[in-house]
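Sequence in, structure out. Go.
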Amino acid sequence: MPTDQDSLRELFITGLRNAHAVEKQALSIMTPQIARIEHYPEVAERLREHVDETNGQIERLDELLAAFDTSGSALKDAALSMTGGMAAMTHSLAGDEIIKNSFANFAFEHFEIASYKSLLVLAEDGGFGQAMTPLRQTLDEEVAMARWIDEALPTVTRRYATLYAEGGSGHAKA
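Output:
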C-alpha cells in the first residue's frame, strides 16, 4: 500500500476528475438513445432514470472535488462527451441499434463499476473518509443499472428478433 499521502491525494483527485468526465460521457451516450427509442419503452424509461442518477453522480463528484479545492477537468469532460456522442451516432446508423446500444451500455456500466471500486480503495487508503458514502452510493447505482441491462437483454433481443422477423427493421425507432 502506498504511504505517500501527497501521491494518494493526487491519484484520488485524478480519479475523481476521470470519473467526472466518464459520467459526462455517459450522459452523451444515453441522451441520444432515449430520443430514438420507440419499440422499447422500458429501456427508454430506465435510461431516463439513469440519466437522473448520473446527474446526481456528477453533483456528488463536484462536491468531492470542491472539498479538495478543485473541479472537474473541462478538457476531459469535453473530450469524453464528444466520443460518447460519436459512439451513439455510429450506433444509430446500424439496423440493430438497440442491440449494439445494449452491449455498449452493459460494457460501459462495468467500466464505471471498476472506476468506482478503484476510487473507493484510494479513498480508504488515503484516509478520505468523506468520500466513501457518496462513492458507494454511486457504485450501488451503477451496479443496479448493469444488473438491469443484464436482465433486460433477453427481452430486448427477443423483441428485436420479432420485429425483424415481422418485416420491421427492429430499429430502436421505426
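Check: The CA atoms of residues 6 and 126 lie 9 Å apart. The mean pLDDT is 86.
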